Amino acid sequence: MKLVFLTLLMVSLVISGCVVSQNSTVVRIGFQNTPASALVQIADEKGLFEKNGVHVKLEEFTAGKFALQAMLAGSVEMSTPAEIPVMLAKMQGNELYVLSEIGENQNEAPMIVRADGNPTIQDFFSQKRKLSTSLGGTPEYATYQYLKHFNISRENVEIIAQKPEEMVGALSSSSVDAIVIFEPYPSLAEQTLTGTTRYELPPGVYTTAYLLAANKTWVDQNPEQAKSILKALKEAEDFARENPVVAKEIVARRTKFSPELINKIWSDFDLRARISDQLIQTWNEEARWAIDTNKVTSTVIPNFTTLLRPDLQQV
């Protein structure tokens, strides 16, 4: 009888556990595991999501575009891509929201090349070079801006698509001559390799904006939870501003990049949870690039304001 009771108790616990799992409201956020997603990492580390009544589970990705793809496939409710993948997703007919920016960086995608003597960028590309970047994201758009701004012939550049984590090794082995990728990989290349030269776009040419994107259906059904997440990110912004040393320690530990590397690039990031006035204009300009370079089949620039939910920003 005792054995029967224990068996029934175990079955009851299993069933109960299944019910709890099915009814629990876990919000999955896919994030790019770099300092660009610092506010999300800090909010999770300091318990700010839980404080605001939301149970969040972070899912790690090497690039924001991969997190966005997972979100569009229904694997996560939210993601932290930059503005380029979101623009492309919208122009490809996907439905989603952008609830907030979570950071900006004017130096997010420097070009690192292997070259002796610190040549100018025009001299470096006076002969054909292999350049590695990440297609469909901000590094590809930054590459376009380098070629355009410095009048580099497209015929002298062979663009090779690689994952971010592959590029430093490719540059080290000389299988590519240059990389354009988001931080901290460019600084990691400079830290670990000899004979590198860095090129940057002039101020004002291109600023990367990292975003909190969200599944449209989920937000429409859970606006209060969305507001709570935004509130937690605002609190994370305050924490990072008031406690920069601790914030950098959190990001270094979570990203597994060295504290020295995180400290080197930290000041380049403007970590704020907001929607800037320039975001729509930026999307419109980038959409023209996507059309002109056949990144999308559409020839019409959509109304990007439909991506935004300003009512949820009032937290």
From TrEMBL:
Source organism, top-level taxon: Archaea
Residue ranges of coiled coil: none
Protein name: NrtA/SsuA/CpmA family ABC transporter substrate-binding protein
Organism of origin: Candidatus Iainarchaeum sp
